[in-house]
Structures are given as C-alpha cells and as structure tokens.
Amino acid sequence: MQGRIGEVAGYVWDFLEDQGDSSVTAVADAIDVPSTKVYMAIGWLAQEDKIDFEEAGRGQRVRLK
Q: What is the largest distance, in Å, between two alpha-carbon atoms of the chain?
C-alpha cells in the first residue's frame, strides 16, 4: 500500500508543478485514482514537508514549497 501512495504522491506533485496552487478537491478530481488515496498522498507530502496549505473558504488550497 505504501508504494501505491508514494506513486500517487508523485502524481500530486506533478499536478501541482504543472497547475500551481490548487484546492485539495481540484487535485483529487484531476488525478484518476480514488480520492482517499489522493488525500493519503497529500498527507505523505505534508509529512515530508514538501507542500504548504492555506485555508480557502470552507476548503484548503495546497501548493509545493
């Protein structure tokens, strides 16, 4: 499972590198894997201190550091 989450973290990274800061929902919608795995991958990147979060209304925006 960890290998798959790491792979999805790469997809999240690539998306953010291409698109810039985005809502967490937009990231999950854009990547063709179950949203729970995208959220796990975002958590992985956060733990690795690779991304920043910003409150945006009722949601969160995420961007690469």
A: 33
Cβ(45)–Cβ(9) below 8 Å: yes
Residue 62 · residue 52 · CB < 8 Å: yes
Dig out the tokens for 14 from the structure.
């690539």
Which pair of tokens denotes residue 36?
A: 């729970």
Q: Give me the number of domains the chain comprises.
A: 1
Place of tokens 């990274």: 13
Q: Which of 56, 48, 57 is nearest to 21 (CA)?
A: 56
d(CA 62, CA 25): 10
For residue 11, the enclosing domain spans: 2-64
The structure's pTM equals: 0.89
pLDDT reading at 48 higher than 80:
yes
**Residue at token pair 């975002």:** 42
